[in-house]
What we know:
Chain B: This is Mitochondrial inner membrane protease subunit. The complex is a heterodimer of chains A (219) and B (160). Chain A has 219 residues and is α+β, with helices and mostly antiparallel strands.
Amino acid sequence: xxxxxxxxxxxxxxxxxxxxxxxxxxxxxxxxxxxxxxxxxxxxxxxxxxxxxxxxxxxxxxxxxxxxxxxxxxxxxxxxxxxxxxxxxxxxxxxxxxxxxxxxxxxxxxxxxxxxxxxxxxxxxxxxxxxxxxxxxxxxxxxxxxxxxxxxxxxxxxxxxxxxxxxxxxxxxxxxxxxxxxxxxxxxxxxxxxxxxxxxxxxxxxxxxxxxxxxxxxx
Amino acid sequence: xxxxxxxxxxxxxxxxxxxxxxxxxxxxxxxxxxxxxxxxxxxxxxxxxxxxxxxxxxxxxxxxxxxxxxxxxxxxxxxxxxxxxxxxxxxxxxxxxxxxxxxxxxxxxxxxxxxxxxxxxxxxxxxxxxxxxxxxxxxxxxxxxxxxxxxxxxxxxxxx
Lengths: 219, 160
């Protein structure tokens, strides 16, 4: 219970009041406890508010960046050896940076390494090399047709490690709408930091491109 | 004066980026309005109807037989098609026409769906270009906002 103690007011020389009324409050221990708890709850509420407002800024921005600009993915499997994962999973898989902005208009080049939503499993992404674009006439490796013209709006992907790769040679040409991103850099492990350049193995070049002129001699 | 103008510009840019990202997340993960054109889904959806397609079913893989979906066209990724799902992976679908004597059937491969328009006579769909990969589906149509010709101009149908 607060108690007040007033000093006695007295008149000093010149009629001026001297002595300041002093009010002291002696608090009980329970009151002190309540005060501390209220301060902590205030600080806690401030922290929660800051966290929630930060969360609602950070999550949409992160999701938008991952969907539209860049994506980071770990490469698993041996289907792109020796370009990616040259030692398999023994020393750790490669991690690549996927550029999603460059494929927003579905423009890919022959020789690019791209990530594609798998036609066999819509929740899985596969990383392969683009071998041929729409209109190209190619020779396949183990597909049901020996020679094939890639239909409009489709492209042909293959893994560099032939025979250990689930690619267009098993499920046929892939629709351009399934392309997810273009692998531009290898960013892990650090001794394998490099920019990925588009390169097409010469024996896999299309026989005819869609302008009708031959790209290699057939023998 | 220059400093305050710069501060205000940066604040404005920051807010624009933040709201743009929220809008992207809403359109990508919740749903969007789509204007349909073409006769292939009559009488369910007529040309120039606006529909609302929700994205949650596609991301959670809950598209079922009988749903109307919006998908990217397999032959032109810039174009979208609006058709009904007739068969999921593993289903047996009939590929011959109604006037054929011998019925032919096909099994829908893994990871694909079979799409057909409601207006069977005037629709190019899986009967001509084969099964469509599931990952090309963009969303499931759940609401239709009809325009103009009906007596109640803002008539909303709810098809769940």
